[in-house]
Design brief:
By secondary structure, the chain is of the alpha/beta class. The protein has two domains: 316 residues, ABC transporter type 1, transmembrane domain (ABC transporter transmembrane region fold, Up-down Bundle); 241 residues, P-loop containing nucleotide triphosphate hydrolases (Rossmann fold), CATH 3.40.50.300. 63% of the residues lie in helices and 11% in strands. The chain is built from 18 helices and ten strands. It has a six-stranded mixed β-sheet. A hairpin with a 2-residue loop joins strand 1 and strand 2. Helix 5 packs antiparallel against helix 6. The chain is elongated. The N terminus is likely disordered.
């Protein structure tokens, strides 16, 4: 068995679109943004004024010994400006903190809500580990992007502009020319190399998500891995992604070293040229020693943040790359949406009607062909058939996890596509074949059916599902943790929790999808008798494989290849001596001759 491997091309999203997506979150606290920017510009003005005061201090001290007096006011001003540049910067961070954290919270919440709005098709195809890693990286990238884009790139460019104007006004034009040439060279080099490096970052992100998805998938299926002794196989699959990630990470680091070296060379050349020019000015007498100190201070003041600006630009590009996949999730089509002006479902008698329903997952795979039946109010209709006949698809369509390709489904005469999904799903309770529980207590999992239910109601639901005695036998009772996906419970125990949860919901319509398939014969008979009272006067759709569980249904539908092949009561179908009668005979034979 050879592990399959496929590397998809790294996704790329327009950076401007990503930034534009964040603007509404900034606008929510616009006064904080404006105040933070004001504090920022005050800090930068104070920072730019520091070398000017320093020049005056040096010039006042650069006099014959007899004429020297201590420039107290200038020294105090120097200290105040130094403190002001730091103080206003810290105040800016304090004011803006709420904007950043609220934006991260709102975007993460929006993605979370959107993931729950997406159709079942997306969730059947997704890899949980990869999606969770995309959201984690994207949320982290938002804070970095907002903070550094507003408070590093813009202010650094403003500071550079102010310094260039001062140099142009106070000194020879060559100071400004050298400064601009150095800046232009630095920025062009940084942009060019950083864009080239982004492919490595995107590859790292893709492989990181894929490796995480494979790791979580393998760990969730720990028992299956052990059953087939496939630990080495799983390790190889995991390492496939890590190998590509490692290669991209090495390329990312080595290309970063080249970028840093090139940036340092450009800065060193610019500073050297300016200092040679300033030194010659002092020798020629056209500049004072204070002017030399001023130029040097400005160069340090410009090029240190400029060097940091290169780092910030790289990290912002990385943050944008980190956010690409998270925002791409928001662009996923929800597929099943409420119509404009959709009203809540109004339940009167809860009668269900399937009218000539066709459905296919895609053009190549047609599942249902002209399904037409009715579940009268308060009646029980059972659907039986072989695996793949389309039985469970009926419940998915009734819940509107998908919309029918053709035909329609009605509840009390209302097309379910014309009502809100929330009201539709509130009216339906289901006990699925594959019961998955939350990694929490038994109490929490039962209460999930109706979170506002009282403890007495939850206990009563457990009694009716015949799981109360089992819960009481546990050391922690209702507080017993069920483990991830409920793995600490047996299949039958999980199904009884699911039955209790559905009963607690008190729905108008009940769906049992192989609801007793994981139960032993004794538990099944006990719950079957209880289900009789549960479903009495309640519209019920039962999807089953074992015919013994549906003999009391008001009507039984036999499905084959996406069509209803036979319908009738148990006795009527036996009298027809068709598919149902043959299935009944086979199952009776199996039960009378257990292996």
């Amino acid at each position: 068995m050879r592990p399959t491997h496929h590397v998809s091309a790294p996704t790329q999203r327009n950076d401007l679109n990503t930034i534009r997506t964040l603007l509404p979150y900034l606008w929510e606290f616009k006064w904080r943004v404006f105040l933070a920017l004001t504090l920022l510009f005050i800090a930068k003005i104070a920072n730019v004024a520091v070398p000017l005061v320093l020049k005056d201090i040096v010039d006042s001290l650069d006099k014959p010994q007899a004429m020297i007096t201590l420039p107290v006011i200038l020294l105090v001003t120097y200290g105040v400006l130094r403190f002001a540049s730091t103080l206003f910067g810290e105040l800016r961070d304090a004011v803006f903190a709420k904007v950043i954290q609220r934006s991260i919270r709102r975007v993460a919440l929006q993605v979370f809500q959107h993931l729950h709005r997406l159709a079942l098709r997306f969730h059947l195809e997704r890899q949980t580990g990869g999606v969770s890693r995309d959201i984690e990286r994207g949320s982290r990238g938002i804070g970095f992007l907002l903070n550094f884009m507003l408070f590093n790139i813009i202010p650094t460019l403003v500071e550079i502009g102010l310094v260039a104007v001062i140099l142009l006004v106070k000194y020879d034009k060559w100071f400004a020319i050298i400064t601009f040439v150095t800046l232009a060279s630095y920025i062009a080099f940084t942009l060019m190399i950083t864009e080239w490096r982004m492919v490595f970052r995107r590859t790292m992100n893709d492989m990181d998500s894929k490796a995480n998805a494979r790791a979580i998938d393998s760990l969730l299926n720990y028992e299956t891995v052990k059953y087939f002794s496939n630990e080495a196989f799983e390790t190889r699959r995991y390492d496939e992604s890590l190998q590509i990630w490692e290669k991209a990470a090495i390329q990312n680091t080595t290309s970063l070293a080249s970028l840093n070296a090139g940036q340092s060379l450009i800065i060193a050349a610019g500073v050297t040229a300016l200092m040679l020019l300033a030194g010659q000015g002092v020798v020629d007498g056209t500049m004072t020693l204070g002017d030399l100190v001023l130029v040097n201070a400005y160069m340090i003041q410009i090029y240190i943040p400029l060097h940091f600006l290169g780092f910030v630009y790289r990290e912002i590009k990385h943050a944008l790359a980190d956010m690409e996949k998270m925002f791409a999730l928001l662009e996923q089509n929800t597929e099943v949406e409420d119509l404009p002006g959709a009203q809540d479902l109004k339940i009167d008698r809860a009668a269900i009607r399937f009218e000539n329903v066709h459905f296919s997952y895609d053009e190549k795979r047609s599942i249902l062909h002209g399904i037409d039946f009715e579940v009268p109010a308060g009646h029980t209709v059972a659907v039986v058939g072989s695996s793949g006949a389309g039985k469970s698809t009926l419940s998915r369509l009734l819940f509107r996890f998908y919309d029918a390709t053709d035909g329609r489904i009605l509840i009390d005469g209302q097309d379910i596509r014309a009502v809100t999904q929330t009201s539709l799903r509130k009216a339906i309770g289901i006990v699925p074949q594959d019961t998955v529980l939350f990694n929490d207590s038994i109490y929490y999992n039962i209460a999930y059916g109706r979170p506002d239910a009282t403890r007495e109601e939850i206990i009563q639901a457990a009694r009716r599902a015949h799981i109360y005695a089992f819960i009481q036998s546990l050391p922690d009772g209702f507080d017993t943790m069920v483990g991830e996906r409920g793995l600490k419970l047996s299949g039958g125990e999980k199904q009884r929790v699911a039955i209790a949860r559905a009963l607690l919901k008190q729905p108008s319509i009940l769906i049992f999808d192989e609801a007793t398939s994981a139960l032993d014969s004794k538990s099944e008979k006990a719950i079957q008798s209880e289900l009789g009272s549960i479903t009495e006067n309640r519209t019920t759709l039962v999807i089953a494989h074992r015919l013994s569980t549906v003999v009391d249904a008001d009507q039984i539908l036999i499905m084959e290849y996406g069509r209803i092949a036979e319908r009738g009561t148990h006795q009527q179908l036996l009298a027809q001596d068709g598919i149902y009668a043959h299935m009944w005979a086979l199952q009776q034979q199996d039960e009378s001759n257990p292996q």
